[in-house]
Amino acid sequence: MSYTHLFLSGVNTLAVTCRQFGDTGKGKFVDLFAEWADIIVRGTGGDNAGHTICIDDKELVVHLVPSGILYDSLGKVNVIGSGTVIYPKALCKELALLRQKNLSYDNLMIAHNAKLILPSQIVYDRAFETLLGKSKIGSTGKGIGPAYTDFVGRQSLTINDLLNPNFLHSKLEKDLNYKKLLLKKYDPSLLEDIMNCDHLESGLFYDQKDIFNLDEIYERYLFYGEELKPLIHDTDKFVRSNLRKKKILLEGAQGDLLSVEKGTYPYVTSSDCTISGLAKGAGISEGDIDMSLGIIKGFYMTRVGGGPFPTELGGRDSDDWCNNGKANKISEKLFYDGASKEDRDDEFCQGVALRIAGNEYGKTTGRPRRTGWLDLPLLRYVFEFNSSDLILTKLDILSEYEEIKICFAYQYQGSECYYGGKLIKSGEIIRVAPMDAGILSACEPMYQRFHGWKKSLDDCANYHNLPEELKDILRFITRETKANLMIISTGPDRKNTMFVDNC
Ligand code: IMP
Fold this sequence. Notes:
503 residues, alpha/beta, 10-stranded mixed beta sheet, 3-stranded antiparallel beta sheet, globular, binds inosinic acid
């Protein structure tokens, strides 16, 4: 029996989600656990997510299909659940990529009641961000927000509509008439530019007079429907009927702090990507989950797009730089290589260095991820509504560091305000992060400093072999947050994985 099977003995339904702002290296663990599972389900989000799967040392980035797709040929079923939003072009493109790599997706199931992303929602997502200016969310521009907004506003189309031509035509017409009104206030040349982008079929859906060409959209969506037809099922029923009979893995997307219900609202995605949203989007309830593992990076964090990030290295400058739409992996490397010793001591530059070391660039958008130290007040907050069983990833990234800083509390430096029915005053110490974007932005991190371990972790086979400096930090985190540290990852390879018995 493999160690993974031993670790999961007695578990039938396992959920893996991120306890930060996403991008914590979930792919490696979903892949590890997919070997154990019979059914792998995604329940939230859409092609705003991106995960890397590795085949023969080659990386394949997928956005919608669950990471367990590599095991399709072994009969494992991958499910894109009812809580997701699907842009059929993006999904068909991913399927084409799988065909090209000779990877089977015969057992892939798509929920008939997942919501459809429409061209109008993508245009609205991108145009609306231009209105928000400096306070923009930094969305991925994939139409995710408007798709969920339309669902709650009772305007959505579902995947099932792709299979019913008559309904599809009238529903699309209704959507386009409504969106045309909403888009009236925008500059027509902005809308034309957006409509001409590759993601929107390079202008195929565009009509100069009406913005949208209903007939082209209808024809194209019917075509997608034909392609996806064999994969469309009642997946809620399928997953429920297999509870406690098969081993089910729920694969999270994004992270708790980006959840529309629990995150740093309004700087969030539009789905509830916590464990409860994930369970619902997979067709089951949270109580059906036997084990819920949360992932954080050790000992740093990243965030993509706008929103408060108290420990961000370089603060406001880093936020502006990462969101200016110009910086990328190549330009950053040139910038850092050309920086003087003095410049490199600057926090902003340290943030760039951490991004380069951790390869922290978006899989979906290529954007630089904002970087900062691990923030325990945020972790204490997510543990209030989530399991504190933890996987710690990417520990190898900080192996060269002289000093590691961990934020253990904040000092509030804003004007007096109420939160949770209590008055907060300037200078007050806060140990659990307040989930109010304005208040959180006025929180200054307080740090505990630690010596770095300054050696490679490659030869550490288990927890007891880890350097003492590193173990000190782990003990500090578990003491401060009551986290139950279960797995440590010291590199992308499976062999760089240790199960912790006693921290
Ligand atoms: P949306 O999900 O495209 O609406 O974007 C809303 C916010 O969530 C933006 O700040 C995005 O950068 C962020 N976001 C969405 N998906 C991901 C992800 O997979 N990883 C990290 N951030 C994400």
